[in-house]
Amino acid sequence: MYVDAMDLRCSSCDVVADPLAWACPSCGGALDVPPIPLEGSPSGEGVWRYRDWLPAVDGISLGEPVTPLVRMPWDGLDLTLKLEGALPTGSFKDRGTAVLVSWLKAHGASSVVIDSSGNAGAALAAYSARAGLKCHVFAPASASPGKLRQIAAYGAELHAVPGTRQAVADAAVDHARVTGDVYASHAWHPMFIVGTRTFAFEAWERMGVPDAVVLPVGAGTLMLGIAHGFADLRAAGLTDRVPEIYAIQSTACAPLLADGREPVEVVVGDTAAEGIKIAHPPRGRAVIAHATDVLALDDDALWAAHARFRLAGVYTEPTSAIALAGLTNLAERLEGKKVLVPITATGLKSPA
């Protein structure tokens, strides 16, 4: 079991950080946790089925289910979708947030703050309400109205910020520094990624290890959780392989489409894929290192895939559709392989 006293450490300079810290106190780098041994056996349902493979804290839950797997025809590919919109607030962000809020509550947090384009904010608002924490959410004023209403519905204090996505992040960090509220960023705090590992665990139990995973990537927190989760399963001797991982970005914001190991500077344009509109992903180097390849597609491709899947019965938010669009570009590389695509959020988040 993952012990409560385990240190958070800087991925750059190895400095130990406080459990409520979101970045290295010395260099400002992203924090990581040591590899987690998979001891014990899964029991129960949903995220906390893997309690023995998660932090040893009282798990805060909203009844997370095992999300459905749906086989879908797509140009001859062996394609399975995992419908993360079935989670309590309608997106995969509930996986990481359930673990993150449980960790923060156990370590004395009483008020939290996040910046979010919508889904992470809704998840933090809901799980904070469940845990009895005060919650502030900074979101773009241009975010989907339904997402903003959902955040407010859980009782969080919503701060709609005009301007760029970076301006929203800066406002949330400034709030944390002034008030002492814990900055519970899904992009920064490593416990969020510890939680998204459960996507890989569920997939492994129900379909085995896919040959390839194709998904939308902004901050990369689901992708890194998937990569770490399958790597943990291999380290435990529960599988002998890990999948290829293809990260799909928008041409309007593709800092991970880089020739080397470092993200590149981009000028952010308009895109319906608001959930991956992250110009400066804090863990960009790690995402590039774990990706088999990174592709960028435009909104025409996004909407074509969105229409094709909703007419087949799968209603996804636009951000998820950009991964489905990527299947066409990857068709030759994925031929004959078992492919898994996370539908990261329900289309009801951003009706279109």
Automatic annotation (TrEMBL):
Keyword presence, Nucleus: no
Location of the Tryptophan synthase beta chain-like PALP domain: 60-344
Entry keyword Lyase: yes
Entry GO MF terms: L-serine ammonia-lyase activity; threonine deaminase activity
Cofactor(s), names only, from the UniProt record: pyridoxal 5'-phosphate
Coiled coil segments of this chain: none
InterPro entries reported in the protein's UniProt record: Ser/Thr_Dehydratase (IPR050147), TrpB-like_PALP (IPR001926), TrpB-like_PALP_sf (IPR036052)
Biological process, per Gene Ontology: isoleucine biosynthetic process; L-serine catabolic process; L-threonine catabolic process
Pfam families from the UniProt entry: PALP
Lineage: superkingdom: Bacteria
Alphabetically ordered keywords of this record: Lyase, Pyridoxal phosphate
Name the record gives this protein: Pyridoxal-phosphate dependent enzyme
Higher taxonomy: Bacteria, Bacillati, Actinomycetota, Actinomycetes, Streptosporangiales
